[in-house]
Design goal:
Shape: globular
CATH topology of the largest domain: Aspartate Aminotransferase, domain 2
Distance between the termini: 53 Å
CATH architecture of the largest domain: 3-Layer(aba) Sandwich
Bound molecules: pyridoxal-5'-phosphate
Largest sheet: 7 strands, mixed
Strand order of the largest sheet: 2-8-7-6-5-3-4
Order of helices and strands: EHHEHEHEHEHEHEEHHHEEHEEEH
Radius of gyration: 20 Å
CATH class of the largest domain: Alpha Beta
Strand content: 15-25%
Number of helices: 12
Length: about 350
Amino acid sequence: MAIEPRAGILDIRPYKPGATDAPGIANPIKLSSNENALGCSDKAAAAFEASKANLHLYPDGGATKLREAIAREEGLEAEHIVCGTGSDELLQLLGRAYLNPGDKVVQSQYGFLVYRLVAMQCGATLVSAPETDYRSDVDAIIAAAGDDARIVFLANPNNPTGTYISSDEVRRLRDALPSTTLLVVDAAYAEFVDEADYTAGIELARERDDVIVTRTFSKIHGLAAARLGWAYGSSAIIDVLNRVRGPFNVNMPAIEAGTAAIADRDFMQRSAEHNEEWVKYLRQQIGGMGLEVTPSVCNFVLIHFPETTGKTAADADAFLTSQGLIIRPVQPYGLPNALRATVGTETENRLLVEALGQFMAG
Ligand SMILES: *Cc1c(COP(=O)(O)O)cnc(C)c1O
């Protein structure tokens, strides 16, 4: 008989990353994981390469060099930053540190799937607040949280919808939650957002000790493979995270690559500009085919398909895969009629539009 894990663990459906292959196709185009179309900074790649000389040494457990680089570039205090193996790890650590079995965790209806995993791993109960037009609804989140939520996870902007709420709305949410509720603002796509009423929430985390903001190197910095993220919060929360994380949770090549990446503002700007141009193209072109595309401030678009036989999201997914184009079904998010497509290179974006056009005309 198998050794029994803790209650609830076997109810977890393991996270399924975006597909990487299309049967029978040698070099498919992968637009399924919101990776950076431009790759990563050359300086980050060079730093990673150079790090091989020291592979036999343990990394600095405090990732000091990286925290100081982040602090310098983002105008923050290094002692209020903790780094993780992807922001994913930081989200898990928040659960480990703050959730007891039976606690209530709140997310928005189409919130990032990792929040559900975190809640389930900790035996907590996940409550989803309904969205309006695929956008987080602050009043619904406040109602769902009531006076006893332990953690509210807010992806701003959110994946897979690509929508955001204003910094005023985030502040209104924080003000309405009890001080016993931790607000986690996951700002994985913050650097792509160029809207006057948006901020990543850093200022809120600086003012209050019940807010933490998580960020990632996987998107604008194009370092998804290095697994690197960071969180900014009060001394109290950072202290807690430092107690529950592994002593060497961030590896040295990632520290080196991340330190170079965060200083390469030129690469970040080029990534943001590329995205702005092509996310608009995808929305216009795909919208022009009669498909609804949710307005996105991220490096992906959520495309809604009809339920007509032959034209469903599943049909589109199968057709695109047969053409060597891999995008992301979002059924696990409760969006069976939609697909999520990452912004690719110019060539990739044009191929996607062409293939979708063929599918719709077919
Ligand atoms: C991609 C993404 C992340 C980043 O995860 P990493 O573990 O840092 O790669 C976090 N949150 C959301 C909503 C994302 O889409």
